[in-house]
Amino acid sequence: VLQLHTGSAVFPRPSVGSWVVYGLGSVNQDLPGYVTISPPLYHGSNQNYASGFLPAAYQGTAVGDTNIPMSSAQINNLERAAATRELQRFQLDLIQKGNRRHAAAFATDSRLDARIEAFELAFRMQTAAPPVMDLDGETKQTLDLYGIGQGPTDNFGRQCLMARRLSESGVRFVQCTHSYKWDQHGDLQGGHTRNAREVDQPIGALLKDLKMRGMLDDTLVVWGTEFGRTPVSQGDGRDHNPYGFTLWMAGGGIKGGTAYGATDEFGYFARENRVSMYDFHATILHLLGMDHERLTYRYNGRDFRLTDVHGRVVEEILA
Questions:
Q1: By the 8 A CB rule, do 47 and 71 touch?
Q2: How much is the pTM?
């Protein structure tokens, strides 16, 4: 999971979203540049959306987590307290004065600057974020399209619709997490059938909605997993298979209807046109207008990249 999100499985590094916001900056100054919806609490936890050694301002902002239904998921501590906005501004100015004095004494610690900006952003988000995250203003046709209010598709449908609304409002990088339930060591047929029922309609709705709004050509949609399942049985399930699995991309700059790469005849090992996680990340950065070899950050005496010293752009899938 960490390698999918950060490029490294052994050493906590900045997540893909953090690299993207570091490279491109934010569009809407009243919203975070990077939002993760219903993030996982396992296998790396918040390291999957953390900024690592990048300045802390580039970390992801979480909306709920995988244990919270999307119907009630919010950004923590966003609701305005009983104090008036004017009183909150006065209180925040006092806190920020102390923070800036402290930051001046410890200029090398980016966490202090991030804390100052986080307080200011939280203040602005109290008025900017709720309208974006409130799905009640959507038409019944749109809610039905995403499967909201329709049992199995409701939760992930809310994630996908919120992702569209955040992207539409200028959030650079939005990440959704379905669940941990794909790790089917048992009851694979029943489990994957339920999972597919929960995600297929919302995913299709997101792509259709983006296209109808003229956003798809400028939005890269990525559906990924950290590994596949073995072709041999493990009881009535399947074991982990990191040697050959599938991810798909759509939208901005992608050649639609293209299948690239193939496994062996058993569906076990990737044999033809193998793509590493470094290649995958290099291609994402390229499609977003960045050179993965030039997007660097100096830390502990050397320049670091999302792709480390590896990676090539998979030109064959580009439009």
A1: no
A2: 0.91
